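anyone seen this seq b4? input:
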Amino acid sequence: MEYVAIQPLQCDFGAYEGLDGYYQVEEYRIIPCEKVIRSEEKPFQTILLVFPFEGLEGVDAQTHFQNRAIMAGKAKKFVAWLVVATGVAMRLYHIGFGGASFGKGTFIPRKEFVEEKILKEFQADITAKEGKYEEIFRPDLSAKGVSPGTTLKLPLDFPRLTRKLFSLPVKKQRQYIDACLSFQFGLENWGAYPTVTLVAFVSAVESIMAEEFTSGYCEDAKKICQFKKDITKKFRAFFERTLIKPLPEDLRNFLNETYSKRSTFTHKALLGEIGLCGTYGEYSKTSKLYSELRFLFRLIRAGLIQWLTEI
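predicted toks r here
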């Protein structure tokens, strides 16, 4: 098989503005598809992700499904990183590749045929010009992008950081991809399950905070304590290393409270005081939680990108 087609779908935030052009980032080609007008103000647009894929030898049913699993895994990694890089909620919507027939016969389509078939099937915008990247100053802690985005724009450093990510040692790359997947999962559950979103956001940091060092010193007990608040310290240390050191007192307190809520939601089966379906809980509590999530979204996304930038 020579090509894989992936269609990431924006979810939970309604319609959104998609790409204005195509992008070639390493071996991945991102192509905008035709916009679907659900609202005059916010048209909806899916995008097509195409990349070369050789796959395993053979064209029987077993290797067919193995190949789908391999290419889906490759696509999931890229899309999860794309979500962190852009701040827009997306997930895989469709996975497919050029048609090999099963059985004794073998048909490996020409690259041009597969490309034409895929572009037509997904109504890709073949007239799109090369897209422009958006210049962003790092770390991005400006008021812009406080909430998950509804306009898909690729940052100027996206190609460079993509190359860096996929050239990391296997262990570090896996840690970072796990963080991206947790962040992506949090955005997918933003609307209906804010408690799940908070747990997922914190898990994104936990995926790569194992390297953070803390002394284990407990200020309250005035002695070394290996367990008391050590994990919370590591959580804070991640932001100290990537964003700002020392942490302002208000930010320090916010991170302490966030990790405490993460523990509460997790140990109470994600229920907490406002329940799993936080959207339908008491307004004052859900409103406060969403306000905290918007700030946490901004902090964690900036921290994850800064980690990759500096490593």
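The longest strand covers residues 3-10. The longest helix spans residues 283-310. kinda curious what u guys think
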